[in-house]
Amino acid sequence: xxxxxxxxxxxxxxxxxxxxxxxxxxxxxxxxxxxxxxxxxxxxxxxxxxxxxxxxxxxxxxxxxxxxxxxxxxxxxxxxxxxxxxxxxxxxxxxxxxxxxxxxxxxxxxxxxxxxxxxxxxxxxxxxxxxxxxxxxxxxxxxxxxxxxxxxxxxxxxxxxxxxxxxxxxxxxxxxxxxxxxxxxxxxxxxxxxxxxxxxxxxxxxxxxxxxxxxxxx
Length: 218
Known about the structure:
By secondary structure, this protein is mainly α. It has 10 helices and 3 strands; from the N terminus they run H-E-H-H-E-E-H-H-H-H-H-H-H. Helix 5 (108-123) packs antiparallel against helix 6, helix 5 (108-123) packs antiparallel against helix 9 (172-190) and helix 9 (172-190) runs antiparallel to helix 10. The radius of gyration is 18 Å and the shape is elongated.
């Protein structure tokens, strides 16, 4: 696998196409984890200047798909099974705590926001928008949890969480499962059922780990 697997840019906004094409190549495995990407080589491959490539690297880094190394370029993120297991063990507990705390503070506006994000996530055909909506669901719950320490702890896991959300966003079957899981979580929050909400969140996180584990094993 190498950067030659990045497809050429088509007739769409340049910065968007550069970002999307690199992202697809990473998520679909055409560029292997651990591969070093430089602005010069990628721009030459795509026939564009380094500016949109630099912007793409920054966006991909914010989504956990690459890690930017100063003066060296970007490295496609690579996680071991143990790293993933450790992150998801922590995430399961932290997300369950977030939903528990959020229920105490949740109002009608918050419930409406959550349902809106869930419904939009099942309707969108854009993997990038899906990633943003899925993140918005969890971020809204975290906002209502109103605990800065908890927020900071989850931020430390973002590289893995965002990386894996992006991979899931390209699989229709997993997206359908996530829709049902998110809906179950939101309904439990609306009903102020802390036990069910925490169980639903824990199940959602475990299912996510199992999917990613199977995806990486292929």
